[in-house]
Amino acid sequence: MDTVQAIIQQQIEAGTFLQSVQQGQQVQPEQTNYGEEEEFEDEEGTYKGKRSNTLPIWGNQVTMNLNTLVLENIRESYYYKNNLVEIDSFQTLVEQIFYQVKHLEPWEKGTRRLQGMTGMCGGVRGVGAGGVVSSAYCLLFRLFNLRISRKQLISMLNSRQSVYIRGIGFMYIRYTQPPADLWYWLEPYLDDDSEIDPRSGGGDLMSFGQMV
């Protein structure tokens, strides 16, 4: 006898079954709380509850945590203002990476104006006095504004079309994902021996494991 039948039988024996039907009451089994999250493991790792397809954004929700000078050059670049701003399709942006991106540095080779600059503005940590910002960073920032999904980011990391699609996927993680999640994202690729040259102008071939 199932739960509903048992309840009905109890009401019949107690003489309350017809009364409950006349009053429009529904006979329902005892409710079980299935809302509690449990920790489990799938092909993406171990986590609590169902991992949302919506990615969190860590840090500044507007600047993507970019250096101010790089950000200003992106927003003022011809490529960004006249090409990328109008694109609201993830697949179209990925196609742009395939055709336009040849390295992962913020500046195009030979365009940074470093004369007279010192300290942080003297080239430390990739910060220069401006120049022609790279298509890689323009596309990275456009993907950020599009707020790509978890599935879309994973598709970039595992792309077979271009190593630079993968490279920008890893950069997106580094700039936007919570520090506590970095190991979850990057650990599977530490032994990846596929190669990429991230330097503007080339000459710095390395494996994805090294880059990660």
Automatic annotation (TrEMBL):
Its main location: nucleus. GO terms for biological process: mRNA splicing, via spliceosome. It is found in: Nucleus. Belongs to the PRP38 family. Pfam families: PRP38. Residues 25-48 are annotated as: Disordered. Residues 35-44 have a biased composition (Acidic residues). Coiled coil: none annotated. Required for pre-mRNA splicing. InterPro entries: PRP38. One of its GO terms (cellular component) is spliceosomal complex. This is Pre-mRNA-splicing factor 38. Keywords: mRNA processing, mRNA splicing, Nucleus, Spliceosome. It comes from Caenorhabditis brenneri.
